[in-house]
Amino acid sequence: MSKLDELEDSCRDDIIADLQLLIRQPSVSAIKQGLLDCANIVASMMRKAGITTEIMYFYNKSKGIDGIADNDIETDINVPPLVYGEVKSKVNPNGRTILFYNHYDVQPVDPIELWKSDPFSGKVEENYIFGRGAADDKGELITRIKAVEYYLKKMGDVPCNIKFLVEGEEEIGSLHLKEYLSVYKKKFECDAVVWEGGFVDSKERPIISLGQKGILSVELVAKGPSMDTHSSLAVLIENPAWQLIRALNTLRDKNGRILIKEWYKEMRDFTSEELSMIENEPFDENAIKKEHGIESFLNNITGFEAKKAFAGIPTCNICGLVSGYGGQGAKTVLPSKAIAKLDFRLVPDMVPEIQFERLKKHLQEHGYANHKDSEKIDGGDNNLEIKLLDGEPAARTPINHPFVNIVKEASNKIYREAIINVSSAGTGPMYYFHDILKVPCVCIGGGDILNRVHSPNECMKIDRLIKTVKWIGAILEKAQY
User: Fold this and answer.
1) Contact assessment for residue 322 and residue 331, using Cβ atoms and an 8 Å cutoff
2) 200 pLDDT tier (thresholds 50, 70, 90)
3) Using CA atoms, how far apart are residues 19 and 16, in angstroms rounded to an integer?
4) For 439, phi and psi rounded to 5 degrees?
5) Environment class of residue 393 by beta-carbon count within 10 Å: exposed (0-12), middle (13-18) or buried (19+)?
6) DSSP 182-231
């Protein structure tokens, strides 16, 4: 009999209480809110579960030292600490080591007026718990901790060796994770990584995702007069908003194809096995359209083409446009500045830094010179400031890796047959685990399309959290062999 059969739903109250504790501690990395306090709560929670835990700090680079700090070395207070945990199996000390990657930071709560309750309350309504981080990623983190806690407190041991890496910068691009992994590569050594979270579809089928797209995030700033001025001067003064619109219009066509030269040059094609899996993968188009209030997808794509695009086609997206007056009523103003924030989703073999250089070259060739560039283009008085905000390469675990089968077999103990997903359309720092630790990463969890991740009223199903605890336990049991 599996030890999981003894894991009853009585853990519900513990899961709710611990998740509420985490939700009630704001930890917004974008504004550096409450990160150290949240790291301490995570560490305390892990120690209480019986996990050997330490908080790892980053060296102060102004002192000329790279890497992670010991307690006697001055640390960089601007870098959120990483929470590390480890449990060595007594019965299987030379067996596999599974590393759980999660993060304790969350997205900003804006727009606050759209929340139905305090975003940091952890309010419970029937089968749902609400709050920023309920799904991404505090809820998923709790499921990993609780699964390990169950084995340690009920069995006195774990089926295989376990490590935790919980960072505080995922929502702003995991700015220092590469350094953490590089400097302490030996510490994080493992056989496989269970990624921060995952999804269950509308038919209660768990989705096992094997990859993530990369990302390049940039900011474009067009500058006009030294101050906002009267719109009657539009006949004499160029409006920077029009300048920015013209620049943006050169980046992609109406069908979404990116027009930047050589943008797709290194793009990795799907293998025949991946294409076959994508073709056979269930994809609930109607559920997606209903949730987002749309009638059709871009270019009216459906079926196989929609699934293929979601898993492995690069994108150019405008995340935000800011210029002039957007309040109630009219204001006849000519703005002094216009700002656009963009993200480009990348696929394996596309390097963010190379793509950024291609973007800069494209804009320069269209007459837009970077304010910060000393070299100006002849006749080019259309100046844009082009900033690289962050970037992460894409990663993809091979379909036939043995760990994929372990995760799939474990899911069958808890759910109906799982769906293998070649790659998520989202982004995370998976590439660094592939590149530095040389290990497979598999995304699993209890989220679904209704979680409102990164949006107001984020929530998580409580019974799904319990199922995920059991799924994690099943993986640990399968991994011991």
Assistant:
1) no
2) very high
3) 5
4) -130, 155
5) buried
6) HHTTTTT--SEEE-S--EE-TTS-EEEE-EEEEEEEEEEEEE-SSS-EEG
